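Support reply, case 0932

Customer input (verbatim):
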Amino acid sequence: MIRAIIIALVAFPSLVFAVGCGGVEKTSTSTTSPTPPDKTVSPAETPTTPLPTPTPERIVTPTHTPTPVPTPTIEPPSANPVPGSCLVLEEKYCSTGVRVIPVELAFKLPEGVSIFSPFDGALVVVPPEAKGAVKGNIVRVYTGIEPGDIKFLIQGDLEPVRGNGPVREGELIAKITNTGVTVFGGYSVSIHFSLCESREEGTGVICIPNPDLLEKFFPQVKG
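Our regenerated output:
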């Protein structure tokens, strides 16, 4: 029996024998082809669709439209005008002046506004030949011609209502006209006050526009 098994193994090396309780059971094994090496197949590349270039965000800067400032309406003159706290004009016009230079106020006044003398003194209406390049009329009131005296001057689109001579505080001396004459770039009239002092050379008196006097008569106007 053993000899037969040996002979079989020699003759048929591919046979596998198993020994069981009931004898020998022959089991055949089939020869399988070797598994080919794993060939990794790269997936086909999917073409990438380019992303659209983002449109830059448009930033809209809000524009500020300035609100137009209405031109203040200037009231017409009163039927029976009286001097206001500034002593030169009716009260409703005293605060409407603009300080165009440190020693000068300019006003836009309607036709017919009354101009009053701010103090007792001497009224002088400047004649045309003495006005030089000044347009319109010039009216002055002096308290005197000594050091310490005061001079009031108004010039522009106005008409004197009387000639040279003594004048009292609060007396009507001129009225605003509407001839188209302007001063300081569009104003009807301008006003200043001067303080008289001795000349440096010691002869005569000179009257120099004074900002403190301007503020004394027109404290309402700032600037």
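We compared this against your earlier run and they match. Two observations from our side: The first helix runs from residue 2 to 11. Helices lie at 2-11, 91-94, 211-217. Please reopen the case if you see a mismatch on your end.
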